[in-house]
Design brief:
By secondary structure, the protein is of the alpha/beta class. The chain has a nine-stranded mixed sheet with strand order 5-6-4-7-8-3-9-12-13, sandwiched between helices. It has a two-stranded antiparallel ribbon with strand order 1-2.
């Protein structure tokens, strides 16, 4: 196996994020119902009844005057009639007429003045109503302008609420170099492993998986990698030991430590130092590149008397007579050499064929080392110890500047990529090997994800380690009480004892829908192979891309499509996408989430894909389902990114547009790609600073003054809304 790529140990940037899953969060609250459009008040006018009442009142008031005026007219007529009949003299009749006229004049003036008063009163009432109508119209216009402003704000808030992501990525913080997962099911581990693989495939990073569960938890990862045109290299131990070169390209001291750790895993750890000393002496005689078969021959030589050549022993036949003599001479002073050699030979004999039929040692981006389902726990412990110990030595060898890898391996190595090592079933490893790989990874800048089925002391001890990120998945039986106490003691949780979490209904539905189908063996292996090969009938993918050992990176759009089509998680999530609906405003008890505590009972009821990430900000419930990436409401940005930039899912689009200058021929292509990109594939990146604003100067005017008629006119307000 080629050496892992070196790392400069610098903090991971945006391209080096390791995703553990997605958290459901609604950062922008619902804006509520739309503001109601102000309706005009009822129009007040001079009614005919009121005018008639006013005129009737005037008539009642002026009725005596009209009677007096009528009597005077009749009296004047009487005087004229009497004068015409020669009853009264003309002088007396004319005097009476003039007297009646003199009395009727002020009465008529009073009646005219009363009519004018009524007319003025009606006119004043009309003017007063007109003024009130104008004031109401002015207030209505102001209320409508305020409504237009509020409606514009509401519409922008409503669009932002509808367009915001609901699922944000949860990544390993930059100051945490390792992740310890306690608990979980096979399906949950399959989801988490595939999600970590999504992060590495997206950027072309290096991923090494050591699966000691005996289950096919890496099956979905393998399918996704092949769909991404990356051929993962797989070894199933012990059958593939002859094809594996892991641990064969180390120096003598490293190989002695690895083999002594393997012997201690199946025996007593106290004898590891003595075993390492004995193996070092054998390598001094046989050479640092001697295979395990030669080492077994040397151990057999120590168990064979000096006079007995044992010509029919194939193990001794690998060593010449001179080598056997030098081995006995070099190890003669070792205390209990015969008994120790016999025990070492028994424990190392399963590894005799390591590397004997090794394949081409070219670099592979995705490497999976797993144990056979039928091997048992003891075999998984031995083979897992060998793989993890060899990986630890490789990680330590890189930063120390040890032996350089072959030239073809150096050419493929790129130190700017992130490397991740995942160990599934780490509870089967000796505690010393767990500490060793964590130290080696910290020194080499490599990220390690350790998955423990049970809360062993080696896992719980890491909950208080500031360089380690603890993650808790579904617990079983009495282990939940121990894990609950450990969760309560984590600094981020202890500082916020009242912090609760919520489980989204989508997490429960997908976990029940997929179940153990992603890890259970297929009843017909040949049919399963044919089902996988229908996508890859040739060394090319359906898009024509050549399947290679590594790739420089996968675009987010292609990655989403591959997750949806190649993994059971993506297909199940696509079918249940309608569940991802936000709670309506004012909804009671109908939301898609339910509260969950941190007690032992709640940890037992966790969905299989749910993971409780215990960071500095408190517990965060994360869904490790990689199919969430295919949802239109998912984003690769984290909650912290969205709160910092304030752009949410659309920050990348704006950054892409600003990155293109007017003369850039690729500007339209980048803008189209950023616009058509689904929200699930967008990432929030810090926006570049805006260019300095250029103020126009027209006819010597001040630059501070905005020129008229520049830009589009303002949007016309719609009063019908």
């Amino acid at each position: 196996m080629p050496n892992p790529r070196s790392s400069d140990g610098s903090p991971r940037g945006g391209d080096g994020r390791t995703y553990l899953g997605w958290r459901h969060a609604v950062l922008l609250p619902h804006p509520g119902p739309a503001p109601r459009r102000p309706a005009p008040d009822e129009q007040r006018t001079l009614s005919e009844e009121w005018i008639a009442d006013q005129r009737a009142g005037e008539a009642r008031t002026n009725r005596p005057l009209y009677a007096v005026l009528g009597g005077l007219v009749l009296l004047a007529v009487l005087f004229l009639v009497l004068w015409s009949q020669r009853i009264l003299p003309a002088a007396l009749a004319l005097g009476g007429v003039f007297a009646c006229a003199a009395v009727a004049a002020p009465v008529g003036f009073a009646l005219v003045q009363s009519r004018q008063v009524i007319a003025e009163r009606l006119a004043e009432a009309g003017e007063r109503l007109a003024a009130e109508r104008a004031e109401r119209d002015r207030l209505l216009r102001e209320r409508q302008r305020e409504h237009a402003r509020r409606y514009t704000e509401w519409r922008a808030a409503s669009r932002a609420y509808e367009a915001q992501p609901h699922w944000y990525g949860v990544t390993v913080p930059a100051d945490r170099g390792s992740v310890v997962v306690v608990g979980g099911t096979d399906a949950g581990w399959s989801a988490l492993l595939t999600t970590v693989g999504v992060a590495r495939l997206r950027e072309g990073g290096d991923l090494t998986v050591v699966d000691l569960t005996g289950r096919a938890v890496a099956r979905e990862l393998v399918r996704l990698a092949r769909r991404c045109a990356v051929a993962p290299r797989r070894w199933v131990l012990p059958a593939d030991l002859p094809r594996m070169t892991l641990g064969t390209n180390l120096d003598a001291g490293q190989r002695a430590r690895v083999l002594s750790a393997v012997a201690a895993a199946s025996g007593t750890p106290e004898e590891a130092d003595a075993d390492e000393t004995l193996l070092l002496r054998l390598l001094e005689v046989l050479g640092p590149r001697a295979g395990i078969a030669e080492l077994i021959g040397g151990l057999r030589a120590l168990c064979t008397p000096e006079g007995d050549e044992a010509g029919d022993d194939p193990a001794l036949a690998r060593l010449s007579a001179d080598q056997r003599a030098r081995v006995r001479a070099r190890c003669a002073d070792t205390p209990g050499a015969w008994e120790r050699a016999w025990e070492l030979e028994r424990r190392l004999s399963p590894f005799e064929a390591v590397g004997t039929r090794a394949e081409d040692g070219t670099y592979a981006q995705v490497k999976i080392i797993s144990t056979d389902r039928a091997s048992g726990e003891v075999a998984a412990r031995v083979y897992g110890t060998y793989a993890v110990a060899a990986l630890s030595e490789l990680l330590e060898d890189g930063p120390r500047g040890g032996a350089e890898p072959p030239r073809r391996e150096r050419r493929r190595a790129r130190p700017d990529r992130t490397r991740t090592v995942v160990v599934c079933g780490a509870e089967t490893l000796p505690e010393g090997e767990v500490d060793q790989i964590l130290r080696a990874a910290a020194d080499g800048g490599v990220e390690v994800v350790l998955m423990f089925r049970t809360p062993v002391p080696a896992a719980l001890a890491r909950f208080s380690d500031p360089a380690c990120l603890p993650v808790v998945m579904r617990q079983r039986g009495g282990a939940a009480d121990t894990v609950a106490r450990a969760v309560a003691s984590v600094p981020g949780v202890a500082a916020r004892p009242d912090t609760g979490v919520e489980v989204h209904r989508l997490s429960e539905v997908i976990g029940e829908a997929v179940g153990t189908a992603v890890t259970e063996p297929h009843p017909d292996p040949e049919a399963e192979a044919e089902a996988d090969d229908r996508f890859f009938p040739s060394p090319h993918t359906e898009s024509g891309a050549m399947i290679r050992d590594s790739a420089s990176g996968i675009s987010p759009l292609d990655l989403v499509r591959h997750v949806r089509s190649a993994t059971a998680w993506g297909r199940a999530t696509a079918q249940a996408a309608e569940i991802d609906e936000p709670a309506g405003v004012g909804a009671e008890g109908g939301g898609p989430s339910r509260p969950l505590g941190l007690d032992a009972g709640s940890l037992r009821r966790l969905p299989c894909t749910a993971a409780l990430v215990l960071g500095d900000e408190g517990p965060v419930l994360t869904d490790t389902n990689p199919g969430i990436l295919t949802l239109s409401t998912a984003t690769l940005a984290t909650v912290a990114d969205s709160r910092t930039t304030g752009h949410g899912a659309g920050a990348v689009s704006g950054a892409d547009e600003r990155a293109a200058e007017p003369g850039d021929p690729d500007r339209r292509r980048r803008r189209t790609a950023a616009t058509d990109r689904p929200r699930a594939e967008r990432e929030t990146a810090p926006s570049p600073p805006d260019p300095p604003r250029r103020e126009a100067v027209i006819d010597g005017e001040s630059p501070e003054r905005v020129p008229p008629n520049l830009g589009p006119p303002p949007e016309r307000l719609d009063w019908r809304v």
